Amino acid sequence: MAATIIGTARETVPGERRVALTPETARKFIAAGASVRVEQGAGLSAGFTDEAYATAGAEVVDADAVLQSDVILCVQPPVPERLMQLRQGTVLVGLLSPQAEPARAAAIESRQLVAFPLERLPRTTRAQAMDVLSSQAGMAGYKAVLLAAGLAPRFFPMLTTAAGTIRPSRVLVVGAGVAGLQAIATAKRLGAQVEGFDVRPETREQIESLGGKFLDLGVSAAGEGGYARQLSDEERAEQQRRLAEHLKQVDVVVCTAAVPGRPAPRIISADMVAGMKPSSVVVDLAAETGGNCELTRPGETFESGGVTVAGPLNLASSGAVHASEMYARNLLNFTSLLLKDGALSLDWDDELLARTVWPERQPG
Description:
Number of domains: 2
Function: The transhydrogenation between NADH and NADP is coupled to respiration and ATP hydrolysis and functions as a proton pump across the membrane.
CATH superfamily of the largest domain: NAD(P)-binding Rossmann-like Domain
Strand order of the largest sheet: 11-10-9-12-13-15-14
Pfam families: AlaDh_PNT_C, AlaDh_PNT_N
EC number: 7.1.1.1
Order of helices and strands: EHEHEHEHEHEHEEEHEHEHEHEEEHEEH
Distance between the termini: 24 Å
Number of strands: 17
Oligomer: single chain
Strand content: 15-25%
Catalytic activity: NAD(+) + NADPH + H(+)(in) = NADH + NADP(+) + H(+)(out)
Structural class: alpha/beta
CATH class of the largest domain: Alpha Beta
Largest sheet: 7 strands, mixed
GO molecular function: NADP binding; oxidoreductase activity; proton-translocating NAD(P)+ transhydrogenase activity
CATH topology of the largest domain: Rossmann fold
Number of helices: 12
C-alpha cells in the first residue's frame, strides 16, 4: 500500500504567521511511514526554513503539488477556491470552522473532503495532546499580558527607587480558562498584584495556585464539561454591580472569557469602563467573538475617557515559533490516529475521529 502523502501549504490569511507542520513533526511523520510535502516558504514566518524541512526528509514543492496530497494540514481554513482544487476525498485537518462560512462548507461537501475541524475535538483526557484550542490559548494569554504591559503607562512590579516606592499594578484577569490562567501566571511573573475572576467557583484553586487572588463576586455559573453556563438576568445584574465597584481600583483588565460556539459573554459594560481610573487599560482577548467588553472594537486599540481599550486579533500568531511547535505537535498526535503503517486508515469506531469529523458520525 502506498505511503500517505501529508502536505502543508503556506497560510493565506493576512497576518497569519503560524505553520501546521514543523521540521520536527515532518521527521516524525516520515519515521511513521508517510511522505511529507511542504510548500516553499510555508514555515519561514515561523522561523522554519525550506532547508530545515528538506533536511528532515520532506519534499519542498509548489502549492499545486501540495494540494495533491492525501492529507492537508492547515492552521486557518483554506479559502473555498483552494478547497475546490483538492482531490475528492482529501483529508483536511486544522481549525476549519466549516459552518462559519457557507461557501467553505459547500466546497467541503462538493469535493467530498474528509474534514476534521479540531475545534470540535472532544475535551477528554486522551485528547489533551491534540487540543489545539488549549495550546494556542496559552500563547494568546501570555501575549495579551505583554500587550497590556506595553500599553499601561506604569510599571507592573513594585519598585523601590531613589524617587520613592512605586506600588505594583493591580491586574484583573477575567476568565480562568487556559488563556486566563496563562495570563495570570504571566502577570504574576512580571510582578503585578494579580486577581482572577471566573463565574465557575471551581477555578479558585487554579487561580490561587498561580499566585493570583480569586475575586469572588458572589455569583456562580458552574456548567457542564468545565464550561460556564449563561447567567440569569438577576445574576448578571448583581455580578455587574459588584464588578463595577471593583474595577474602580484596577489598573489593567485582561478579558479571556469564552463560551464555545457562542458569542463571547458581555461582562464589562461601557459604564464600567467610564468608572475606571484614567490611564487604565483593558485588553480584550475575546474580541474575535464579539468581546467581553462592550466598547471593544475587534482589531483596534483606542482611548475612551482616558481608558485604553485594545481588541487584538489572532494573538497566538504573534508567538509564531512556539505556537507553531505546539500546534504542529497537536496535529501530529491527531493525524497519527488516521495512519496505520504509513497508510491512511480511518477507524470510525474511534470516538475522537467520529466526533471530530464534520459532519459528525456515530462511532461504529
